[in-house]
Design goal:
This protein has about 600 residues and is α+β, with helices and mostly antiparallel strands. The chain contains 18 helices and eleven strands. The model has no long low-confidence stretch (mean pLDDT about 95).
Length: about 600
Amino acid sequence: MPSYNPPLRDMQFLMHEVFNLETEYKALPKHAEVDADTINAVLEEAGKFAANVAFPLNISGDEEGCKLDQTTHEVTTPKGFKEAYQQFVEGGWPALSCDPEYGGQGLPFAVNSALYEMLNSANQAWTMYPGLSHGAYEALHAHGSDELKAKYLPKLTSGEWTGTMCLTEPHCGTDLGLLRTKAEPQADGTYKITGNKIFISAGEHDFTSNIVHLVLARLPDAPAGSKGISLFVVPKYKVNADGSIGERNGIYCGGLEHKMGIKANATAQIVMEDAVGEMVGQPNKGLQAMFVMMNAARLGVGNQSLGLTEVAYQNALAYAKDRLQMRSLSGTKAKDKPADPIIVHPDVRRMLLTAKAYAEGGRALSTFCALLIDKELNHPDEKVRKDSADLVALLTPIVKAFLTDNGWISTTACQQVFGGHGFIKEWGMEQFVRDNRINMIYEGTNGVQALDLLGRKVLGNQGATLKKFGKLVAQLVEEEGVNEKMAEFINPIAMLGDQMTKFTTEIGFKGMQNPDEVGAASVDYLRVAGHLVFGYLFARMAQVALRQIAAGNTDPFYQAKLQTARFYFAKLFPETATLMRTARAGSKVLMDTDAALA
């Protein structure tokens, strides 16, 4: 059976030593009173909930799955799931970073992000129920009318109700401009929504008395394509004027998907037949409002793979220390045993260190983005808010795609450490692999994220936002460029930073002649950009570790951090050279292939 220990030490290292959250928050009036002790206390309790309540339900939930009653359209979740959610609500966890005006605790987003990493390590399928609710809360908080906020936000904040996002239809996934769900205006200002949605995570369950669906639909006179989409809030049960639950709405679960992973999350086919909904935001501006939830979800999906990378690594490391196979190539290490533990073998260490580096790099990126979001939302200086927002926009597709690709690499590597046992259910590793696979697909496939990064976030403003990140890299290079002990961490990012400008310009010029050139290069480009970001963050982590060691700190944590950083720069970061070469191969080898694909 697998186990899980919340990585509190690494979280605290990032929050207090690398990013100095307490100092950063002093500049944000909303969070000025948040100190390290408060953050640590919350993280410790969050870790206990993840490890002791959510994690024990992971394997059993996967085995049991969700069950739909075709007569009542009600879904029963696996044993213990509903009770765990009630504990989650009683602990106040749904309200952690929500607005105090609606009953929230008002803690920074960085704390909430750490909570969800631990929950994702413990049980991704369970965590998606409250996780999607938080996205619905954010969309309504940003674009809902005062009336809608008063009606829905207190219940979403407390966790009394949950929320979903209903985008995908049987004939359209990424291309939302094709959606057909209709919204007919009514005399009372509401709308009757009719249509079918699929792949709706947490779309039906038995956790709460109501589910608040955010639905994309089309008005009768809407223009074609994505410019004609509006957003509506459509509750499972209608809500009376006094906030109480009314009669059943015309929205129900018509079926559950049978899936490879996340079996304990109800991935629902949602049917709407004259369901009563209220518009969120402006007519035909629904995508703009829904993007608040979609971007939150993209960051959340990166966090899902981060969580799975961490728990897979922990279990593979424990197994590698215990499993005896063969003798070390450099001589017997365990003389009192018939064979050496497999952790002595270089390739086993390569797999373990790959997962460890991708977990620690991903955690650093997740924490960095969460701090930027806190500054974007709360900093008194408009320029700081704007710069933070721009960097979050640039980094969001990297969080979603790079972390989930790395999660797939890591969980499969950790499964490989187990050999044949990794393929056997009772060890838990194959579930981590299966659960992770969806993360590369939903909330915009990783190919779509790559197009978003290169086409919209980089070339769309002539590299202006990329240059903002480049300045951060340049500042670190300038600060540590003459420090010999930092050379192995600084030189690679300095070189890639210089190469990135030429690389981006080259693809941009090609793309002006033929847009397929952007599509052909984009996936490789995103991975190069991901390594530039990881390289910058690992250099910052190494900087802190070296300073602590120089100051006489003997905590082995810092030596471990340096060793992980060295492995990352030696064995993972160099793939950027290959990726730039394959990106430069152009579109012809992909598009001039009609005979090959006949």
